[in-house]
Amino acid sequence: MLKLANVHTLYGNIEALSGINLEVNQGEIVCLIGNNGAGKSTTLMTISGILRPVKGEILFEGESIKNIPPHKIVEKGISQVPEGRRIFPKLTVRENLEMGAFLGKGNFDEMLKRIFTLFPVLKERENQSGGTLSGGEQQMLAISRALMSSPKLLLLDEPSLGLAPIIVNKIFTTIKEINHEGVTVLLVEQNAMAALKLSHRGYVIENGRIAFEGESNFLISNEKVRKAYLGD
Question: β-pairing, 209-215 with 55-60?
Answer without folding.
Answer: unpaired
